[in-house]
Structure formats: C-alpha cells, structure tokens
C-alpha cells in the first residue's frame, strides 16, 4: 500500500509520501515522488499510488512527451491532462492482462505545483480513468493509498488558513497514525514543499530515527489528554455498575 498526502494552504503546498513498496512477500524502498522544475516559472511534483509497474510506465511515458515534443505547460491543469493521457495509454496496454491475472488497474496520482500562468499553487487528484478533481479550500488536501487512518486528524485540524509549518506537522501525524495501524506504510518519508510564487520545490527525506522522538511525544500527549478529559459522565457509568453489583 501507499501513503501519499498533498496539502494546499494559503501560503503554498506541502507533500508527504512514504517509500515502502510491497511486491509479493518482499518489501523494498522506492521513491513515490517525481519532481519537475526548471530555471523558469515551473515547479511541480507528482505522487502516485498503485502497482509500481503502472507508476513507472506512466511516469516514463510522460517524461518522453516532455523530452521528445519539447513540451512545456503554462498552467498546471494542462500538465495534469497530459499526464492523464499517459495513464489512459498505460491502461489500454495493461488493463486486460492485469484483470486476467486477478489484478486491477489502480494507478492514482496527486499532481501539485505552480506554473507560469497559475495565480497560485494548484493541487489535483488524478483517477485511474484519467479524469481529475481539484482540491478546494473546504478540504485542502488529498490522500491516496492507505487513506483511512490519517484522514480524521486532517479533517479536524487542517484548514486552508493553516501555515505550511502547521500543515507539515499535522501531515506527519497523519502519516504516523497510518504507519502505526498499517504494516504496509513505512519510513523513510519524503517531504516536499513549495511556497506560493516562489517557483522552487524543497525536498527532504526523513528516516525513522529522525522522527521517533516526535512520534513518542505525540503518543504521550494523546494518553495525557485522555487522562485529563472531564470524566463526570464516566463516573455515572461506573456508579451505576457498582449499584447493580450491590
């Protein structure tokens, strides 16, 4: 499985992706973020989940389009359309064989960045069918891969008005919640950030040892908060239990 999270807040973009790839009984580490940027006003990244072979093929085809056709884009949605065409191309080539083998065509992608004519950083989620949706301010993030465990924290805490620093913190805690509850999401994690109108992506990799003390800190705070939660209603339950026992 995969954990890929991209967040769009008012000051820019923050992305976090794990690196665990499971193939049969084997686990390996592989990067799930592809960065595209040049000296001009073009900064973007693509995160993917699904079968690794599908991801590698679609990304390779897309890079060929850029290189062979000297293709440039002035708005991110045009880049998303172009990548979507390559996803559909891979589907035409591989879907039938996958289904015959009992597998599904399950390539999802997050495409984010800011290009020359974009007024602000943009974030899209691309489906296996090649269509896409754009993130909105009401729910300023997308997760692909293992989505269930980390989503509640983001829904409660992340706002479009949040700072990029806050987004990175809550994004890490979302990853940590997923890693604790799922054995197919794991360190290292790749973090990417892109500030509005900066046209430059910063990338950093963190290992388990880098982040362990923060994970422990959070776990201790959760337990402490539960102890500090008002418990008048709890007393009602156990008082009633005691009376029944008497």
CATH fold-level label = Glutamine Phosphoribosylpyrophosphate, subunit 1, domain 1
CATH architecture: 4-Layer Sandwich
Oligomer: single chain
Q: In this structure, how is the largest beta sheet organized?
A: 5 strands, antiparallel
Rg result: 21 Å
Number of helical stretches of at least 4 residues: 6
What's the level 1 CATH class? Answer: Alpha Beta
Distance, first to last CA: 52 Å
Textual characterization of the structure:
- By secondary structure, the protein is α+β, with helices and mostly antiparallel strands.
- It has a single domain, classed as Aminohydrolase, N-terminal nucleophile (Ntn) domain (Glutamine Phosphoribosylpyrophosphate, subunit 1, domain 1, 4-Layer Sandwich).
- 41% of the residues lie in helices and 28% in strands.
- It is built from six helices and twelve strands.
- The strands form three sheets. The chain has a five-stranded antiparallel β-sheet with strand order 10-1-2-11-12. It has a five-stranded antiparallel β-sheet with strand order 5-6-7-8-9, covered by helices on one side. A two-stranded antiparallel ribbon has the order 3-4.
- Strand 1 and strand 2 form a beta hairpin.
- The longest helix has 25 residues, at 76-100.
- The mean pLDDT is 93.
Keywords:
28% strand, 6 helices, alpha+beta, 5-stranded antiparallel beta sheet, Glutamine Phosphoribosylpyrophosphate, subunit 1, domain 1, 41% helix, 12 strands, globular, 246 residues
């Amino acid at each position: 499985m995969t954990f890929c999270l991209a967040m769009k807040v008012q000051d820019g973009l923050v992305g976090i992706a794990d690196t665990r790839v499971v193939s049969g009984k084997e686990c390996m580490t592989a990067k799930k973020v592809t960065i595209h940027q040049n000296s001009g006003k073009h900064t973007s990244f693509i995160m993917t989940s699904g079968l690794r072979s599908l991801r590698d093929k679609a990304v390779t085809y897309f890079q060929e389009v850029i290189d062979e056709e000297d293709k440039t884009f002035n708005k991110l949605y045009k880049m998303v359309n172009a990548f979507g065409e390559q996803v559909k191309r891979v589907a035409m080539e591989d879907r039938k064989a996958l289904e015959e083998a009992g597998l599904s065509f399950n390539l999802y992608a997050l495409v984010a960045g800011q290009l020359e004519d974009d007024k602000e950083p943009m974030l899209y989620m691309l489906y296996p069918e090649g269509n896409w949706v754009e993130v909105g301010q009401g729910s300023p993030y997308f997760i692909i891969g293992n989505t269930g465990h980390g989503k509640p924290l983001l829904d409660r805490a992340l706002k479009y008005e949040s700072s990029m620093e806050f987004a990175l913190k809550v994004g890490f805690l979302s990853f940590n919640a997923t890693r604790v509850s799922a054995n197919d999401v794991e360190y290292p994690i790749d973090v990417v950030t892109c500030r509005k109108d900066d046209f430059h992506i910063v990338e950093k990799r963190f290992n388990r040892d880098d982040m362990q003390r923060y994970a422990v800190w959070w776990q201790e705070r959760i337990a402490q908060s539960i102890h500090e939660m008002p418990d008048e209603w709890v007393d009602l339950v156990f008082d009633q239990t005691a009376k029944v026992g008497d």
